[in-house]
Design goal:
Chains A, B: Catalyzes the reversible conversion of 3-phosphohydroxypyruvate to phosphoserine and of 3-hydroxy-2-oxo-4-phosphonooxybutanoate to phosphohydroxythreonine. The structure is a homodimer. By secondary structure, chain A is α/β, with parallel strands linked by helices. The first copy, chain A, has 9 helices and 16 strands. Chain A has 2 domains: 242 residues, Type I PLP-dependent aspartate aminotransferase-like (Major domain) (Aspartate Aminotransferase, domain 2, 3-Layer(aba) Sandwich), CATH 3.40.640; 100 residues, Aspartate Aminotransferase, domain 1, CATH 3.90.1150. Chain A is 34% helix and 17% strand. Chain A has a 7-stranded mixed beta sheet with strand order 2-12-11-10-7-3-4. Chain A has a 3-stranded antiparallel beta sheet with strand order 13-14-16, covered by helices on one side. Chain A is globular, with a radius of gyration of 21 Å. At the A-B interface, helix 1, helix 3 and helix 6 of A face helix 1, helix 3 and helix 6 of B.
Chain lengths: 360, 360
């Protein structure tokens, strides 16, 4: 029996994708080889690779001004890789802190230069606020402004993306990439680890505007230097071929679902159902301001936290898994990525109501 | 029909491993989740992860003085990650050049400090020689000596590993790790990308002596700083979970084969059969000195290179794939890693003899 998996990542994948991957494991399209076994330079994998890039470009409507790269190291890797690639001439950047992940990004950037905090969404209740552009205090001529557009741990999503003129905006979109259409032209760089909405852990998508490819520090490792990666079509070093294949299967699944506009409608429905359930009750609480509530990661707390273990045990007994909140904030968290079906959220809210009725 | 796959990497995997992975794709051991979907912090994946580490330690007889890390970025990533981790106090190292890969390692290290060439195996015929210790001209007090113990492109393997006393030896063993027992105590660091003998592309195994964990440069990215990775049991950032799972299945397959002593005997038999066929003929030639011939990667040339395309087309028609040599050296190359069965080599030499009989 398949469970309903609310993991924050690595996370649920579409069953269709997993079935196809299993079917093709020993023999991809009559090649006599599994995808894991293919040379990354051979025609079979080159086809997989280029289809994945084309499908992603189409899904996200990536403009011709931007390149799509496949790297390794995930979001935490990018925390260093971004300054290594953009601090070549101006070793300073501004950070908008909306939660735990942007905090980490700012701290790591300090290794490579100045990392000015332009705004913070921390309140007495924790990270509950996404500062609007009017609250950002930018420094003089930064190399870029960094923003984590969806904070996985804190459940804070930023929906309004300002125009910064000549200052490149760099977005960590790891946990909501592909959840809705985004205007890529607004970003200098947008990146995301795969293990939420893209596929399996082990590949990082980096979308970078071409004029930013020439700003690396001299000691940026070649395998992580965007310019080198771009010049080699993401094959400067052996790419994580199977992770790219799985991502490609997810992209095709997304296209069958109707693309990002259709998936956004489903994501809104799922998130609304869950937030409505929380808001209708005094038994559960979510502290994030409404305009910044994440559609992907929904943290919530039981008013009576002594019941946390009971809640989790009862959920597990029904096949509702991975609902424990991140250790740094406690409580519960339901991650409801693209591949989590509406039925999972329906089963969760039904359980929440029953648990409340029993214990309120 | 499965082909015989002589790819240099990503490369053939054991059928048993692929079958098990396919069987478990949607539901690992009754968990209701596939391995790709599991939180890396959950008990299911923690078990997979710790078993992989234990099995690898047992297979390679890794002493307690050394830690085993799982990183990302492959061998080319390590070309930067090694100096970033070892140049903290002494930004200089020595390189023994045995082929194309050690050349790349030396060049990348120049970004971070001095990279002295202590010896080279290049001859008029290309890289055909592995310099003995007596030929190494070490500099004064280097941070380490780097050696690529098996050169995938040139087919040069180093079997005699000298004792360097207090100078740490750093080995890129990407393309022959797990092919035979190695005395890990002789190495300060031994690393390898997974896509030859370990599993699928996307995870790098780094075995590092504990006293070397404290020598990183200040600007080493946290996700690639061995000390940080070690302190977090290779989970500082989200690890490439599925690649670790596949590696773990390969480790268990290797144990069922009888471990590294048994696999070495099979690898000797396979390599001997192929080299004997080459040496018995004037139609085929391998230029590497006999004591340094790789058991994993066997480059060979047709005396009449105008027949190269014919040779490859005929091989393909028999299901003998990926025999084209690396573009930098030309000719042919048969990579005969652990998962390539003796039957594949038998089929290859049979074809080589027939091709020779027809065209000689």
């Amino acid at each position: 029996m398949r469970v309903f998996n609310f993991s924050a990542g690595p996370a649920a994948l579409p069953e269709e994708v997993l079935r196809q991957a299993a079917d093709e494991m020993l023999d991809w399209h009559g090649s006599g080889m599994g995808v894991m076994e293919m040379s990354h330079r051979g025609p079979e994998f080159m086809q997989i690779h280029s289809e994945a890039l084309l499908d992603l470009r189409e899904l996200m409507q990536v403009p011709a001004s931007h390149q799509i790269l496949f790297l390794q190291g995930g979001g935490i890797g990018e925390n260093a890789i971004v300054p290594l690639n953009l601090f070549g001439t101006k070793p300073r950047a501004d950070f908008v802190i909306t939660g735990s992940w942007s905090q980490k990004s700012q701290k790591e950037a300090l290794k490579y230069g100045a990392a000015h905090i332009a705004a913070t969404g921390r309140t007495e209740a924790g990270f509950t606020h996404s500062p609007a552009r009017s609250e950002w205090k930018l420094s003089d001529d930064p190399a870029y402004v960094h923003l984590c557009t969806n904070e996985t741990i804190d459940g804070v999503e930023t929906f309004e993306i300002p125009d910064l003129g000549d200052i490149p905006l760099v977005a960590d979109a790891s946990s909501h990439i592909l959840s809705r259409p985004m205007d890529i032209a607004k970003y200098g760089v947008l990146y995301g680890g795969a293990q939420k909405n893209i596929g399996m852990a082990g590949v990082t998508v980096v979308i970078v505007r071409e004029d930013l490819l020439d700003r690396a520090m001299a000691l940026c490792p070649s395998a992580f230097e965007w310019k080198t990666v771009a010049a080699n079509n993401s094959m400067y070093n052996t790419p994580p071929t199977y992770a790219i294949y799985i991502a490609g299967l997810v992209f095709k699944w997304l296209k069958r679902q109707g693309g990002l506009t259709a998936i956004e409608a489903r994501n809104i429905e799922k998130a609304q159902l869950l937030y409505d359930t929380i808001d209708a009750s005094s038994f559960y609480v979510n502290k994030v301001e409404r305009r910044a509530r994440s559609r992907m990661n929904v943290p919530f707390f039981l008013a009576d936290e002594t019941r946390n273990d009971d809640f989790l045990a009862g959920a597990k007994a029904r096949g509702l898994l991975q609902l424990k909140g991140h250790k740094s904030v406690g409580g519960m968290r339901a991650s409801i990525y693209n591949a989590v079906p509406l039925e999972a959220v329906q089963a969760l809210v039904e359980y929440m109501k029953e648990f409340e009725a029993k214990h309120a």
